[in-house]
Amino acid sequence: MRSVSDPARAAKLVGLLALAALVVAFPALAPDPFILSVGVVIMSYAVLATSWNFVGGFTGYISLGHAAYSGLGGYATALLVVRADLNPWLALVLGGVVVAVLAVPIGVASLRVRGASFVIVSIALVLITLLVFQSWGDFTGGSNGLRVPRPFGPDVLRPEQHERFFYLHAALLAVALLCWWAIDRSRFGSGLKAIREDEDKAEALGVPTFTYKLVAFVVSAFFTALGGGLYALWFGFLDPIFQFSVLTGSYLVLMSLLGGVRSLFGPVLGAMITGYAVEYFKAQYGDTQLHLVALGVLLAAVVLFMPDGIIPALRDLLHRFRPRTASIREVSQAELAEQRRAGTVEEARL
Amino acid sequence: MTGSLLLQSLVLGVLLGGLYALLAAGLTLYFGVMRVVMLAHSAFLILAAYLAWFFNVQTGLDPLLSLLVTVPLFFAVGVLMQRLLISRLRPATLTMMSVLLTFAIALVIEGALGLVFSGTHRRIQLPYSGADIRFFGASVPVVKLIAFGLAAVSLASLYVLLKKTRFGQALRATIQHRDAAQLVGINTGRIAGYGFGLGLATAAIGGTALALDSTIYPSLHWHWIGPLMAIIVVGGLGSVPGAAIAAMVLGLGQSLLQLPLGTTWAQTVFYVALFATLLLHPQGFFGGRLAQRF
CA of A213, closest CA in chain B: separation in Å? Predict the structure, then answer.
């Protein structure tokens, strides 16, 4: 057993180190501050997509509304700095806690329903927060937006600021990934995955499904809020239209699905691909609505042809060239149903 | 608050509720035949509104005549969409993935509208645009009456189609029990396609009705997604009468709340109703035995 897994483990370790080295070296390699700022944006997407994956990947509940938590995190951080005159880093953490507390009642309400209804509620949440933050002008700045003071002094220049925030985002991403990995290997994680495959059976087997879902939901909201808060401190300006946008929420879903929701690095890979594409499209066709069409087509293509994502697809490809291992492969309910249907569909056609 | 103002709000609320009912009926059809939550419904609504506006600008004829083209067109698009895209999704994850797929379609429509017609706000100018009918001191715009009339006629024909024809029978059988319907010889795949087309045809009518008295722009569909989704959840997913009742109640509620709260905050009635439904009665308040599982 060990002899089989050791080379694989070594390869993983090397890959991980290479990735870490790439992240550390990126600010030095970036040719100009603009590319560096794109790096910060992509890193921020990676944080948000990984945070999304605590719910989407483990439980299979697809939320199109995580922009509500990143937006709330951003506003909570900014308002704590502006109105309560708190230290920005303290405000960031406190903002994350506030959003996590808010996520409890929201989770209790929205996790009572499954599938489509859950998605509807998640969209509704973004629309409500948008409505509230636009209308409540005297507190949130309304449609005029809210300026967030820079956390570092005025003597820190913009490229330096980008570099610091790149590393801050990378650190947050590392914590989120570590947390996901720990849950993935825990009994709690197995319970969540059981919910994803068949919630009724999981419940019958004694998994406290509601509590598990709620905890995953709150953890996800907490990390999403931290990501939103960190982004707010970097970007320095909040506008409800962009903070509470279903589009942002759908980017996160696209990234996670594209990379693969079942794997640790899936959302990160998805964020790198989609984030780059998004920034490219904004730079090239920023004035037109073409980026919407591109996002739509890409999302449809992923849903139709690659619902499991790139990482599993690549892994399957690799497995073809390797001798079959004796380990039990994780088979999803969907795959099982597919296999069962494969026989019956032909009959039904007749 | 004067009596006539209240009466006016009531009348406008009923008219609005009628339009909501028509649009929500389409959503329940999709959900019934395919278990699909169609997020692109409101995008198609705006598309139909744009087509009506474009038809009016190009020909100078009444935008209602564009229905002769858009209704069959939308029906065909609906059938094709179901047969070519929705039916390709894996059954085990159909509900979730269909949400994403239809969301993608909505984005493509919004982007395409922006590319073709630009983001400029558009409005149809009609000879009867400003006209209204006096009714016990309340003034009711003619265009809203026409929109309500369209909604009423379409809902009535939908009812007759579902209850009195063989196709309606087959569609209802497919909605109630797909396998059993297949056993008695119904081609459920084809019926589901037609059901989808029917739903989209209601979007063509609703969008045209909408174009009569509102300013349209590509991202307008976001304003409709929330209320429509709230209506089908409150009504109970998949229940046509439930959706109609919820549409009427919420439309009236929105219209009445506009007096004390203003238009923006009155919108929240949908979301309050949505969350209240989830907390108190997750399967919806009016029928809807399907809701909790999907």
Answer: 16
